[in-house]
Amino acid sequence: MFNKKDSTKEVDIKKLNDVISMTRKILSIAYVFIVIAGIYAATLIFKEWKVGVFLLNLLKIVSPLFIGIVVAWLLEPIVKFLKNHKIHRTLATSIVYIVLIGLIVLVLSALIPLLSEQINEIVKSIPTISNQVQTWINDILNRFDGIDGIDIGNIKTELFSRLEEIGSELTSSLPHLTVKVVSSVFSGLGSLIIGFIIGFYLLMSFDNFNDALISFVPKKNRDDFRGLTNEVNTSLRKYVEGTLICASFVFLLSTIGFAIAGLKAPVLFGLFCGITNIIPYIGPYLGGAPAVLVGFSQGPWVGIISLIAVVITQFLESNILNPIVMSKTMKLHPVTIILGLLVFGHFWGMIGMLLATPTIAVLKSIILFLDDKYDILSFN
User: Fold this and answer.
1) Which residue, of 94, 251, 301, 319, has the greatest Cβ tally within 10 A?
2) Tens of pLDDT along 54-107?
């Protein structure tokens, strides 16, 4: 007779779980490779089809819209705060804009003449700085004089001629560069004004703007999309606000320190330190190095005090202000940030380095959201 027990095999639950677990790991690895392959393919397409050039031209055309969105996005919490205190949204938007424009006019009217004066001062002192650097190099090279196989005289001649070329190029190009920057600012002033006007109207109905964006998402995914956008928006806003606070702190403290040191153009170098401080890890060194070099060209004590000012400013910013202001924001590993800076800096230069950290943070938020929703990165 036919025995049913002989025709059925017991299912090995442990082996089945192992197979399922291994399959999930393989799928997770496959997802990662698909993402990498997609990024590589997109890079090739961008390069061959010159999509990047097209997008840049398109961004230039619609730049006022992006400026308006960014302005409205940054000012939205203040308007919402005033609205919660029984102030009509239109009136709240008008108040915020009047205060913002007043602050911008006040800051620019104070900084532009001062920066112009200090740039001229630096230009005039370039020959003196160049001579001081040549004296240092000459003293250093003289110590190696007499070593067999090293022609110190020839090295001095070539090196000093190159330094003179650099000095003359700086003297002639810095005013031209300044004029070029100023002309670019004025040429983009029209787009900036239009962008602020767009931002004003967006800010008056920013809640409706968010609802309009969400309306393009299928109804079944709207709650998830709203949760994702809220998470990304909160994290990114905290990062921007914290970065601006830290950069302003570095600018003010560096300027005060450089002024105490007697450094030429302290506001100019302080502003440069504040701007470069936006770049994590690398920025403080990029910003402080020129100030210290110019300080040592003026004299050893000026250089030493300038160096102390840079070190103290970065110590206070990195160990006290930054942890307080930037706590619970990006949560990115330092290696991830450094790799992002290298990649973005290679493809898009200084602008890429400025945008690297927030872009990576946004991508991380999206990936973690998808992983939480669909468990795509689970290796268990």
Assistant:
1) 251
2) 766 777 777 788 888 888 888 888 888 898 888 888 899 999 999 999 998 898
Is the pLDDT score of 5 beyond 60?
no
State both tokens at 138: 């000459």
Distance, CA of 16 to CA of 22 (rounded, Å): 10
Alpha-carbon Rg for the chain in angstroms: 29
CB atoms within 10 A of CB 293: 14
Across 12-16, 68-72, 253-257, 330-334, least confident range: 330-334
Distance CA(194)–CA(214), nearest Å, equals 26
CA atoms within 13 A on the CB side of 198: 18
Q: CA-to-CA distance for 267 and 263, rounded, in angstroms?
A: 10
Nearest to 77 by CA among 222, 246, 212, 207: 207
Whole-number Å distance between alpha carbons of 161 and 295:
23
- pTM comes to 0.63
Residue of 317, 302, 296, 267 whose CA lies nearest to 117: 267
**CA 380 from centre of chain:** 36
Task: Give the mean pLDDT of the chain.
Answer: 76
For residue range 92-110, what is the model confidence (pLDDT) as tens digits? 999 999 999 999 889 888 8
Phi, psi of 363 (to 5 degrees): -60, -40
Residue 6 has pLDDT above 80, yes or no: no
